[in-house]
């Protein structure tokens, strides 16, 4: 047994060392998929994690009450609540006004709350930069500040009064920009997008001027169920908002990004699988002879499978480690920034669930892409495998018929594809997935990512974040697609060196040969692109609620042309390199 | 025939294709190889030699007929049992060596022993001994790419011998070698013959006759002619052989 | 044979037995077939032709193997001419080829059988020569001669195989088409 184990390990190490580049490419491909999955899973946590953290840190209320009336009537309406049965703590009532805020020439709606330094039992907003409110100063919720482009030290104008921005702070008692619920009138059911600011309690009446002023009251309930059983409730002229509602509104910020990452990680998994399959396909051709030899010296199918799978499983495990680390390190960039909530403190180790899922995915990709070819190799006739004859290319009569009527480059291309139908299919899958992802991104870019707050438009943080997530996916997709394209064109060129050299002895020019190889890749790539564009649009429509705008046709056309020219260029480079070698060398160094 | 046959084939046939494209690569052949015999099967290319050898070694299954090796019927054996049989009792030598490029000479030789479950230490000892026997003790740590054709084939022969096989089957072992390397391999086979190793070589290289006890000519899938030589020990000076005539 | 003996005397006079052992050495295993008396017969002929002279060494009985032989000037000239000669021994394939044709034409014998007999004979010689080459003790220079012999025999063998293929096909074609030819011949006005 020790001997066999030694053998498996020895072959594994030697093979990995001998094919370093392929090993690295395999690692990248599988890591990319697991990394994206980790990112998606990390965002799962991000949906509630930061809100929970903020709620704990700021002593967030269970329920926020706000009457539909204004002034003293409002105070009177709220008066019995702190002593109502089941209420264990309260803070406020705090004055609140729905005003217009002007910054950098933009006038937008802002929910203005009056606070002071006095300690509060509930809702103690956590200052993230600068200081807490003081007379003449305003504190802005960070997401809102980001969208406005204001920083501590800037001046803003609220309802005609100039105020200095003294800091930013986060709260769990009201949803972050743009969901801070602005209304024209208290009691009006029409809610508009807005951000939240705090001013000194003593100044709010002056700021509001003629605009009505009301109050909010933060409550903590004894029964936790009482606050989670509803989201929004209007009773006795008072609106009650539960923390669940606020959490959900905040979660909406990353929800779409989360969806984008999830869909992206499916695409990436498929693409990684295609990558691995492409790379493995190239290696298995090589390994067939080895399998034959193993059989001749008396190895059973199990041993053969073990020798070959061990290698991919090791790569899969390593890739899982890399992907997990990368995904985990990248996650804060997508979840934290200015979410109007407290970000995570320090780096937490990934959850066990994430580790298990990512590892399983890595191993599954490695196994799925390798089991079939390895089993095929293990079950081929020993004699065939030893003869090292690649499965004889099937002779398709129509292809032969067609190729006789084509110009030289096309003829070469068609014949090269006919030799390796499986590889051509991988090229198609690769371009299909890449184009799908890029088309979905273009759809995302085509959307109006601004929100209207009163008279001005501001960036919508939700869409910005979604776009960020999509960009992450796209960058990874492009890297993987590039790897795939390079590997598949290289192997195709290596594989076709001999027939191409023969074609050159028959008088084909390097240009024709290069054209032929490019055509060989473009033939399967074209349907991939043609299907990918509608697939990407469909995918975007599927995961986006509402009526999204369509990207201009010219964008999609440009996308198709770009993908196809990239494929052609990637093929032309290695082919030109190969044609620089003298024909005789090629013929001598490659088996027929 | 003296003694029981080690390897026996009864009316074995192997056909390829069907209808008008039917090729009777091996056409109902009867063969008995007693233990210790060195048998050369000769014939022009395409007459079915390799196919026959593959059938005899259980690498391929016959269309018809029976094959017995050391009292085991191998043509109906399961794939697993065949694999076990190959790794215990059969050594293969191929025209194109089939060494693993990433393993050194000694690692290639111990491959079969490790597969058979021997301990790494014993496998290594035996491999070194075998390399010494084929005259390559000083090349043990070399990769195949650093060896000449003749040396590679000798490594392959050492590998075939690593599990003390009952029979060594060789397919055109000199096919890829120049005359000096062919001589090396023939000498090695001659040593095996004198050591009593059962050996079946199929080839179209007539020089193999020099080391054969028996020679069969093959034509179009069947045997045309079966002759035996009586050969004195390989010590005689000069031609050193007594020609025993053709039966 | 004569030329070789002359060439061996070119350097210095020698005894007959010396010549013989030198010759055997150069031929290696192939020298075994050489008759012991052959060298003296050759020397006697050369002496008669005036190409060598021989001297009786003192104190020894006057026997051919005790005489010292030396080249005459005519002998010297003959050696030079021999070294410059480029004629190459031709294997006589014509005769065997014609034998097959004749045998087939007159139905004297089956050409394939004739070929087979020859093939076995050539194979036997090839085997013997190759076995000689396998000897590890063989001198490399002698090995060269053996290799040459092996190469020639292999060429002969290949040719015989080609002959066999051809004559076997002929045989088959003759047997297969014979009845049909007769049929057609039997048709009246069959030249359609
Ligand atoms: N896999 C195969 N499919 C079809 N025909 C085959 C196959 N393998 C061998 N043959 C045919 O069987 C015959 C014998 O082949 P082979 O045993 O390789 O001959 P040899 O080794 O004597 O050169 C040949 O005519 C060959 O074309
Ligand atoms: Mg063969």
Automatic annotation (TrEMBL), chain A:
Domain ABC3 transporter permease C-terminal, by residue range, is 265-380, 472-573
Would you say which domain of life the source belongs to?
Answer: Bacteria
What sequence ranges are listed for the domain MacB-like periplasmic core?
Answer: 26-169
- Record keywords: Metal-binding included? no
A molecular function GO annotation: transmembrane transporter activity
Specify where it is mainly localized: membrane
Keyword annotations for this protein, in alphabetical order, are: Cell membrane, Membrane, Transmembrane, Transmembrane helix
Tell me the compartments it is located in.
Cell membrane
Membrane spanning stretches: 21-43, 263-285, 312-331, 351-375, 426-446, 466-487, 522-543, 555-578
Cellular component aspect of the GO annotation: plasma membrane
Q: How does it sit in the membrane?
A: Multi-pass membrane protein
What does the similarity note say? Answer: Belongs to the ABC-4 integral membrane protein family.
Know the name of this protein?
Answer: FtsX-like permease family protein
The organism is Micromonospora costi
Q: Cite the source lineage.
A: Bacteria, Bacillati, Actinomycetota, Actinomycetes, Micromonosporales
TrEMBL record, chain C:
Q: Where is the composition biased (Basic and acidic residues)?
A: 170-185
- Annotated region Disordered: the residues are 170-192
Q: Which residues form the Transcription regulator PadR N-terminal domain?
A: 5-80
Q: Which branch of life, at top level?
A: Bacteria
Q: Which Pfam families match?
A: PadR (PF03551)
Which SUPFAM superfamilies does this chain map to? Answer: Winged helix' DNA-binding domain
Name the UniProt record assigns to this protein: PadR family transcriptional regulator
